[in-house]
Predict the 3D structure of the following.
Amino acid sequence: MNFSLGQRWISDTESDLGLGTVVALEGRQVSILFPASGENRVYSLTEAPVTRVAFNPGDIIRSVEEWELEVESVEEQGELLCYHGIRVDNGEKAQLKETFLDHFIKFNKPQDRLFAGQVDRFDRYTLRYQTWQHQFERQQSPLKGLIGQRANLIPHQLYIAQEVGKRFAPRVLLSDEVGLGKTIEAGMILHQQIISGRASRVLIVVPENLQHQWLVEMLRRFNLRFSIFDEERCDEAFADSPNVFETEQLVLTSLEFLSKKKRWFEQATLADWDLLVVDEAHHLSINNGKPSTEYQRMAELSQDIPGLILLTATPDQLGHRSHFARLQLLDPDRFYDYDAFVEEESNYKEVAEAANQLLGEQGLDDASRATLKELLKETDITDILAKAEQGDETARNEILSMLLDRHGTGRILFRNSRSGIDGYPSRKLHAYPMAMPKQYKTAMSVLGNMGGIQNAELTALRALFPEKIFQEFEGENASWGAFDPRVDWLIETLKTLKHEKVLLICAKAETALSLEQILREREAIKASVFHEGMSIVERDRAAAYFADEYDSAQILLCSEIGSEGRNFQFSHHLVLFDLPLNPDLLEQRIGRLDRIGQTQDVNIHVPYFENTAQEVLLRWYNEGLDAFETTSTTGQMLYKEYGEELLEFIGAHNCDEEELDPLLEQVAGQNAKLRKQMESGRDRLLELHSSGQGRAESLVADIEELDDQFTLPSYMINVFDTFGVSQEDKGENTIILKPTEHMLNPSFPCLKDDGITVTFDRSTSLSQEDAHFISWDHPMVQGSLDMICDDDFGTASVALLKNKKLPAGTFFVELIFIAEAMAPKALQVGRFLPPTPIRILLDKGSNNLADNVAFDAFNQQLSAVGRQTASKLASALQSAIHPMITSAQGMAQTKLEALRAESLEKMQTALGEEQARLTALKQINPNIRDEELSFFDKQRSELTTYIEKAQVKLDAIRLIVVSH
């Protein structure tokens, strides 16, 4: 190396120092000052890890005075370089000595980095090319946004998510029965909309008691980090922004909060949102012609928000007019008059009844046959109908598809029922009567003598929890567990079920904590506690301790609120230590285990004190509502009708069979009647449409095939190794990732300071609460792809090819170009022209060998070379490589033209077919909104513009030199 004062050099090991200047030569050492960073380095003259900076004609360089020069020629004056050329700002001829080059010059172009000696390791270049390939495949995948949820692959959920998630500004009502996963469906739709760029600002409005459940579900299942906005949060945020709702992109708030706090509601209406989600939408009701406050608030809020998703398991619960009013929120132009809707709906019933007969085993009667022909009169269905009646499945499905297209609310209303979905286990009740201890009797007797409680519901609640009354008299530290027979029963039950996982749910956190202490101290039974006072991380750990197969908790003790939003299908035994008054809460408790994915019967264990309020409530649920062994869809209606009588029996501990039996018989009769009405009123056509009519099964199969591939784990483990992320095999398909001091990037995506546990296996993520499910949709994967592609990581490399058939010194240049159309994310241009890697492999005659020499096969023949040697090779061949880069750019441009034409044709075909389908459908089903159709015209026009402006850029370069 020959150094001279004033020369410019760049560090090979610390490229972030900027451009250095030789300031001193003393003996065998050289001193280089890096003005951009204020650092000084002293190196050995013979082994300095630096590279001389030299530019070439055609380069644009910048002076310390911030003007730029396009280099025409380079002259050596003494031992310093002088660049001659044209100033970019005024077009005048000028010269610039290297001493006066800008200190902050950074070599971004791959060729500049190669010739400046900033050569990357061999494996980083390979990883970069693989990353672009994965980006390309992911952008075009029809499964994008559907694979990342931590949930079982349930066909009807996936169908609804795909059908709604791909729409522009979806406005729909999700009304699946309890336990069929409306929250998951909504989350999957949100996930798709956000990943695709169709939505970025989302507001979720839920009842106050469900806020935490939604927060947990969105974070754990979809990696969507919502922020809860309440009075306290709004007060704090107001100091930072005039509109508090613009301080976060993803906001979760309660219906009660927006209904009662006008000031914050007005701010919510003024904020820009892409999508509004409202859970338990049956609260948006109209009574006696007057809309509720909740309805008015959501109507005002939703009118300026493009997308709206309403969720309710009981769309008709508060009346048919209220149901119409909610449809009116979704599309006020379509549902403008209630009487017209009722008249039109009578036609829906004809369609549904015809579908029911077509699906039934009895065959069609003359009336239904005539109805079908009338409904489908624009098509002659005589022959196909005859085939359907003879059992031809294809013909039947074709008729059903025609009916679905004409179905009144089919595009905006989705409803599945348990009776139409397979995969649910049986539920078995095991009741255990016990005598009430005298300590409880005494405490309750004293309370009864004191009187003072007038409210029937409060009286009933106190009667159901004798341990609370005992503690009121004896003090909070009173040990009721010492004499309560339910505790001894629980211990014996756990011993009997010693190889089984048991979930216990009780009303209060204090009860769960007391039981955990008793089990630990008396029998050393391993138990995990789960209650509302714990953070999400603490709950995850508790649930993981319960879910683990080895050295784990046998029982998880949950409070009512603490168990919300969590599912434990791997457990088959549920202990209800007490019973809630609200039938929906009972169903929610049982629903922790009774869900799709449960592999065995759910055993429901209920210990209770006989001849007390607890027995009354148990019999109400079992004999009146049949709520333990079947899903209760009528509970709230019956509680509303008979609640006062029930509360009297509970409050008085009245178990007199002569008085109680008639009430329970009456309730059971009414329950049977209501259920029959619901079953006869089932709209099987709507359910068939909502479940995907068989199309969802192929979607499940495609995702399962992707889940089984090893491509993603192999790629991410390579990324972890390359970036210095510590990996510890935890067993059971899980890995613990931890940051290290030697990471290439100190802020690796989604990696916490204390590390995280990950799994690539969907079923493992469902049973282990603390394990993140890593899929192509996970932000860690997307963050890694972006981190590599957006940086200069691996953009310049040198390798050796040991091949005796080729003369030593022969060289090749491999170039990776990226064809890319820059467009707003919401347009999803990647569906048609994703960032596309174009590989060109040139010999010294500039012949492109890429089509005949595959990357992977070629890469395996190459070996790494040291940085100093690589720098010397690149410098020696620089003059020969420059014209080869120019040739390659022309080749890449030719390939871009072909890509543009192919992408435009693909886009016009895809959007044109969908628009034609919806336009034809609108003639017979007015639920197709005009803005949906105009959206296609606008999108095609904008996509055409952006695709035509697509460009190629050189992304990476590799020099390959033959050696023997």
About this structure: The mean pLDDT is 87.
